[in-house]
């Protein structure tokens, strides 16, 4: 078990289940299957890539890479241009983007489950409030009738 996977696989979700059977976990990373080492590794990498690439530090590094490529093109340094272009064109687009999509899908599934559970909880509270309102109104009517007949 790693830092990301600190709960045992068979523990119930932290916030229960939606009425459609979707687990509602407290952490985003817990929304993907973790039965095998391969699945645990995949979700850890996807969450790490998504959270790391979505920072300003990474944006600065990408901007620096773009400036290095422009410098190589302006100085006619073919090797520098090819290296910077290969990193940005091949690695970032063919490797990083699919990993980002998996991480975003994971975050979306987690947010959807939490939103569904919140909606169900609010609906249950609304139903209980209606029942309480009916009980209070009934009590008031009975109290007025009993004090009016005395």
Task: Give an overview in words.
This protein has 150 residues and is mostly helical. The chain has one domain (30-142). It is 72% helix and 0% strand. It is built from three helices and no strands. The chain has helices spanning 37-53, 56-74, 78-149. The longest helix is centred in the C-terminal third of the chain and has 72 residues, at 78-149. The chain is elongated. The model is unreliable at 1-10 (pLDDT under 50).
What is the gist of this entry?
The protein is built from 3 helices and no strands. The protein is mainly alpha-helical and 150 residues long.
Number of helical segments? 3
Rg calc: 27 Å
In which range does the helix fraction lie?
over 70%
Shape: elongated
Number of strands: 0
Order of helices and strands: HHH
Report strand %: under 5%
The biggest beta sheet reads:
none
Number of individual domains: 1
Assembly of the depicted chains: single chain
Whole-Å distance between the termini? 72 Å
Give the mean pLDDT.
80
Spans of at least 5 consecutive residues whose pLDDT stays below 50 are 1-10
Instruction: Please identify the structural class as seen in this structure.
Output: mainly alpha
